Each structure stands twice: as structure tokens, then as C-alpha cells.
Amino acid sequence: MIDLHYWTTPNGHKITIFLEETGLPYKIIPVNIGKGEQFKREFLAVSPNNRIPAIVDHDPPGGGTPISLFESGAILLYLADKTGKFITRDPRIRADVLQWLFWQMGNLGPMAGQNNHFSNYAVDKIPYAIDRYRNEVNRLYGVLDKRLADRAFLAGDYSIADMASYPWIVPYERQGQKLEDFPHLKRWFEAIRARPAVVRAYDKATAINPNPPGIRTAEERGILFGQTAASVERMATR
Ligand SMILES: N[C@@H](CCC(=O)N[C@@H](CS)C(=O)NCC(=O)O)C(=O)O
After folding, report:
1. Distance 142 CA to ligand 1 centre (A)
2. Cα–Cα distance between 13 and 15 in angstroms, integer?
3. Residue nearest to atom 6 of ligand 1 (CA)
4. Are 46 and 5 in contact (CB under 8 A)?
5. Is the separation of the CB atoms in 35 and 61 below 8 Å?
6. Whose CA is nearest to atom 13 of ligand 1?
7. What is the atom index within ligand 1 of the atom nearest the CA of 31?
8. For 57-67, b where at least 16 C-beta lie within 10 A, e where not — what string?
9. pLDDT (tens digit per residue) in 161-175
10. How far is the CA of 53 from the centre of ligand 1 (A)?
11. Ligand 1 atom at shortest distance from the alpha carbon of 71
């Protein structure tokens, strides 16, 4: 059994998609980041970066004590290696999967996160910051579109590289992007969206948090934005 410390955000969806695709038994432990649950001591013990997702695998390969992991890319890679699914041993294709997985972790995720912050959450609408991140996300969507022009998936067959990027394309409207501008990305997006496991993963999210992402309340803003090194000490009392 895998414990999945999860909230209903793109980085959380990556892992529910994988788990639904493979059928590995798992239990969701909701971590409502708008309420500050990412600062609970028991969560920080598995995720010292106070971010979801994180897992605890109670049945790790080779047995022994449970393995806990944070960082969605590391989790996807661990689970793919554990199951032998959605990654290959073929060294060339494996290298391709890894570079597109790390590309998502280092580029698409962080830039789309900042884009969402400055375009949607920030009270002060700063044109320079909005343009900077919207343009960068536009560039990254273009990189994906080119990559997908002559192949069905990012690296070989459908893999953890696709599972990592897909949830960051779902909110394309909030990202200020038009899928029509990226026909290959659009075809890939629609193919993944139609997968039954992906539908199940997003249905789970809606069941846990029926409120779609929108405006953050003043209390949520206080918890989520403006965190410093002192925040963990201050908040980790719950
Ligand atoms: N690089 C990390 C990023 C995780 C991350 O940013 N998680 C967000 C939700 S998508 C979070 O937990 N935020 C809580 C907070 O900002 O306090 C990963 O991919 O796992």
C-alpha cells in the first residue's frame, strides 16, 4: 500500500494519474495547502520542502522499512522503476524519458506556477511579471508542440514524461494560452485527457476538492504567499 500525501493541484495529479494507470493500491492523505496542512509535523517528516506531493511506500522493492519520497519527478521515476511501467530499460528511450521528465520539473512546472501566481493570484497586477511568465509558458508550449510534431508521445510510448507535463496543460486558459496555436500539443492533450485512468484521477480530485482553482481567500493568501525560512518554524506547531 502506498500513502499519497496529496492536494488537487497539477503536481498532485501527476501521481494520481500514475497510480490509476498502474492500479497500484494507494490511500490518499489530503493535505489542504490552502489551510496550511503542508506545515503539519507529520507531513514535514516526509516532505521537508512543505510541498505536495509525497509518498510513503510500505511495500518497497526488496522489502524492509517503508520508503518515503517527495518531489513529483522523483516519485514518478521511483514508481516507474518499481513497477517497470511507463519507463523502459532501453537506454536511448530511457534517456529521452528522463530528459523530458526533468525538462518538465525544471521548466514547465516552475514557470507555469509563476505565471499562475502573477496572472491570477497576485493582487498587484504587475505587467512586466505577467508578460515575462506568460511569454515563457508560451515558449514552453511551443517546445512541446515541436517535440510532438512527429511522434505520439514525448519519449517513446506514453510514459512518466507525458504524465508530468499533462497536468500543466490542463489549465491552459488560466495560463493565457490557446491550444489552437499548438496543434500537435492539442492532439496529444486530447489523447491523454481521454484515457480512463486520467479521467479517474481528475474525478478523485473533484471528489476531494469540489472548488475549482480560483481566487484565493485572504487566509489562504497569508498561508501560501510570502513564505520565508521562518514560516516552517512558525507554522509547524499544528
Ligand atoms: N517541485 C515540486 C513542486 C511541488 C509544489 O510546488 N507543490 C505545491 C502545489 S502544486 C504545494 O505544495 N504548495 C504548498 C505551498 O506553497 O505551501 C514537485 O514537483 O513536487
Report:
1. 24
2. 5
3. 51
4. yes
5. no
6. 51
7. 12
8. beeeeeeeeeb
9. 999 999 999 999 999
10. 7
11. 20
